[in-house]
Specification:
Elements: H1 6-13, H2 20-73, E1 103-106, E2 117-123, E3 136-139, E4 142-145, H3 163-166, E5 175-178, E6 180-188, E7 191-198, E8 232-235, H4 244-248, H5 254-257, E9 262-264, E10 271-273, H6 321-324, H7 335-338, E11 417-419, E12 422-431, E13 436-438, E14 463-464, E15 469-470, E16 478-479, H8 486-489, E17 493-495, H9 501-504, H10 515-518, E18 563-564, E19 569-570, E20 600-606, E21 608-609, E22 626-629, E23 632-638, E24 645-653, E25 660-668
Length: 671
């Protein structure tokens, strides 16, 4: 038998293989390589995630910045010099056309950045800073005259004076547009809202200018009539049931169907539209002729009967600290709230939410919610659900049966939401005298040593010295005395105001209009006029009684037979203290013809001695004029200081990463 050769056996017994050391080395190398790949992959994944977060944050910041800057660029009040009482477009140094509408800013509690509020008027046709002329859009139902039995009541071409036609289409599209609007920014429950309310601009038909109030072919007011005989009916998509009178020929819920500026004609309605003419702040007579947005009474979100802004659920007693915790900041009512069946205003008073079976058939006879005016913080107290951020009275649910379900409002939810997960919105204005950004009304009324800038509380012109309070603001009156915190002692409001607030505003609620009510909160000057009598707080000039005695002035009122040097600044002689034209009551009043208005001051441009007669006091109606006075030469200049810049700081949470982010916008508002 053949046996394997020795060579074969040797080869079989000594073939190549891996030793234990080699195996360990190879495994180690593999593990190192896998670890490196894992780390590289992890770094790459993390980098991609971070880049995505950064990209999302940048995109969100750009989007928000574009919207806000776009609105500010379209503001109608391009020269933000607040109006003084009785200011006339014929003699004002600044054209009224550049001071249309208003700018209203309120920071409320300066210790909180969750209750700051900004509202102003815009016009897309203003192209100086932004060339985008796109109009503002909103909702508008198609209307028909219910009393028109001729068969044409459903035809838009037959009754074109209605909001649904303003967008340019004679076919019902249930929407509308306008070049102008009121825009409000506020945060609530972690959401930044941008509420846009259109200002009606009817399309001219056959060369005829249509009235702002919608009317039918028969000339009937679409929104007139009593509770049982409305003159209109709504055609098109209707979220309400069609059973019962409520769904077929009349409705109350104005803001469900229309995104337009309107007030109530009376305390019980009906709605009265405000159009483009209301942007003008030209001096007008009292009453209907003075329906201007510059007047707080006619703005969206303000109580039209007092001129106070509704920004809280209730006012609370400022003298009782425990009572203040029950009030909540709401900013403005959201579309989710105004589209509920109970809101109604301004077509009808707001009502208590009814059973679901009653809401459509018995809405007009429902129990009023307070006095029925949702913008009256005293007459219509509300409550805020801190979990949902909704007003309980306008949450759209049946409070009688749905005790375990939190309502989310009416059908127009989230339409006005701009940004979610917002923690703060901080608003500040540039104080030219202090050379820094400040909160209007900063400082203390009782600290005589604090630096008094243009927007310091001690320069607030609405100080009611007789009653120790300020009378304008959503929580007014603000009582100065006592141990209250600053947010309850003083307002933090900037407002461009209106020349005829003296006729239509009564901030103290007693119907007696005082000087502290007709002046804007702040009217900064380059040189502040001296007090008429510094020792008597009742005889001051257009200044707050709280203003320090060393207010910045130069030579004060002009005097005869007085030597003046180049650079000296004077004001027109206070003629009221003489027998030359004033009423000699020694009290300052803006509405007296011979009272100086302090918008114009005078700088000496040639040394000399003034005239020997008081009638030689320099007088000019515009800046840049030169006036000879004895051997002295004066040049008039604009003494006002406009609001130049608003700084808005937004802090929000990135949804992807959960990291906090901040967006700071410096918004120029001067020309």
């Amino acid at each position: 038998m053949n046996r394997p050769s020795a060579l074969y056996e040797t080869h079989r017994d000594t073939r190549a293989g891996f030793t234990l050391v080699e195996m360990l080395v190879s495994v180690t190398l593999v593990l190192l390589m896998m670890t490196m790949f894992a780390q590289i992959f992890s770094v790459a994944t993390s980098s991609v995630s971070k880049q995505r977060v950064i990209s999302e944050n940048d995109q969100k910041a750009r989007s928000i910045s574009t919207v806000i800057r776009g609105d500010v660029a379209k503001r109608t009040f391009t020269y933000p010099f607040p109006f003084y009482p009785g200011e006339d477009s014929a003699t004002s140094p600044t054209p009224f056309g550049s001071r249309a509408g208003y700018i209203y800013l309120n920071t409320n509690d300066p210790a909180s950045f969750a209750d700051d509020f900004l509202q102003f008027t815009v016009d897309s046709r203003l192209l100086t800073q932004n060339k985008d002329a796109t109009e503002y859009y909103g909702k508008a139902a198609s209307l028909a005259d219910f009393n028109d039995t001729g068969g044409n009541r459903a035809s838009l071409p037959s009754s074109p004076n209605q909001p649904d036609v303003d967008g340019g289409s004679l076919s019902p599209d249930y929407s509308s547009s306008s070049p102008a609007a009121q825009v409000a920014y506020f945060i609530r429950n972690g959401n930044l809202y941008r509420r846009v309310v259109l200002i009606r601009n009817p399309i001219d038909i056959a060369g005829k200018e249509l009235d702002s109030q919608p009317t039918s072919l028969l000339g009937n007011d679409f929104f007139a009539g009593d509770a049982t005989n409305r003159l209109f009916e709504v055609f098109g998509p209707n979220p309400y049931p069609t059973n019962g009178a409520y769904g077929t020929n009349r409705y109350n819920d104005f803001e469900l169907f229309f995104d337009f500026s309107a007030t109530a004609a009376t305390a019980t309605g009906p709605a009265k539209f405000l159009g483009m003419k209301a942007l003008s702040n030209e001096l007008a007579s009292a009453g209907a002729a003075n329906e201007a947005f510059g007047n707080p009474r006619f703005r969206y979100g303000f109580n039209q009967f007092t001129g106070q802004s509704r920004e809280y659920t209730r006012r609370g007693d400022p003298t009782v600290m425990a009572d203040l915790s029950s009030r909540g900041f709401i900013g403005r009512f959201t579309l989710a709230e105004t589209s509920t069946p109970a809101f109604n205003w301004p077509q009808r008073p707001s009502t208590v939410e009814l059973l679901s079976t009653q809401q459509w058939t018995n809405a007009d006879s429902a129990t009023l919610l307070g006095n029925g005016n949702p913008y009256d913080v005293n007459g219509c107290p509300l409550s805020l659900n801190l979990e949902t951020g909704m007003i309980e009275q306008f949450n759209g649910k049946d409070d009688t049966t749905e005790t375990t379900v939190d309502g989310r409002g009416g059908p127009r939810q989230m339409e006005d939401l701009l940004l979610a997960n917002v923690q703060e919105m901080r608003l500040e204005v540039w104080d030219n005298r202090a050379s820094r950004f400040v909160v209007p009304g900063y400082g203390s009324v009782s600290d005589p040593d604090s630096f008094v800038g243009d927007y310091h509380i001690r320069r607030n012109l609405q100080h009611d010295a007789g009653n120790g309070r300020f009378i304008y603001g959503p929580l007014a009156p603000y009582l100065i005395a006592g141990t209250l915190r600053d947010s309850d002692r003083q307002p933090h409001v900037f407002d461009t105001w209106h020349p005829r607030v003296d006729v239509d505003f009564s901030g103290d609620g007693i119907g007696v209009v005082g000087l502290h009510e007709v002046l804007p909160p702040y009217m900064p000057y380059r040189f502040y006029p001296p007090r008429r009598n510094a020792a008597d707080a009742t005889q001051r000039g257009p200044s707050s009684a709280l203003m320090p005695d060393d207010a910045a002035v130069n030579r004060g009122y002009w005097l005869p037979n007085t030597g003046y040097s180049v650079g000296d600044v004077v004001f027109t002689q206070w003629k009221d203290a003489t027998a030359l034209g004033g009423n000699n009551d020694n009290l300052f009043s803006f509405d007296e013809v011979d009272e100086p208005k302090f918008l114009i001051a005078y700088r000496c441009v040639a040394n000399g001695t003034s005239s020997s007669v008081i009638t030689g006091s320099p007088s000019a109606s515009a800046p840049g004029q030169r006036i000879s006075d004895g051997t002295t030469l004066w040049e008039s200049f604009d003494n006002r200081v406009p609001l130049t810049t608003i700084r808005m700081t937004l802090r929000y949470i990135n949804e992807t990463s959960g990291d906090p982010r901040q967006l700071t916008l410096v918004l120029p508002v001067d020309p």
